[in-house]
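Entry for the shared binder. Reason: the reviewer on the internal report wants the predicted structure included alongside the sequence.
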Amino acid sequence: MRNGRRTSADSVIAEAGKYVRFISASGGGATVSGGEPLLQPVFTGELLHRMKHELGLHTALDTSGFLGVRATDALLRDTDLVLLDIKSWDPDTYKRVTGRPLRPTLDFARRLADLGQEVHVRFVLVPGLTDDRPTSRESPPSPGVSATSPAWTSCPSTSSAKRSGRHSPCRSPCTTHRPRRPSGSQMPARSSAPTA
């Protein structure tokens, strides 16, 4: 273990229990994140279960999904929201960025969809790292969305392809960078209980 300290689920629950009134009053909850929380699925599952059932908190799991096979159905039942961090929809870019294959993450996303789990997919655009054009037709797990369906366009102020959304050097959402939803895609609703 580097830069951490060993702890027990009992001590985490006892500490969180001191703040339940504030967390509940503010509409917050508890998020288990990391590193990667599914490296310790038993500990993560116990925390989620106890946060939800003993403390009555909204629960979230922040994961890359790569180790999704370690998430038991019980762990997912105790999770109100999965924050799924996908580094790239393109398998080649994903492998270059993470050193791992994309398929396990997409399989986990499909499992979550099949379970009806609330999921917020997160993607961080890093210029020069994750903003390259997809090289394959690998499909994301969401119905109606494909790897090529987001608008890949060339910003008038730069010659390189950029993903739609606000992107430097474009300082305001120009028509090229105005966030657009691919036709037929379904965007997840915001959670009614944000996490703290």
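Summary line for the report: The chain is about 30% helix and 15% strand.
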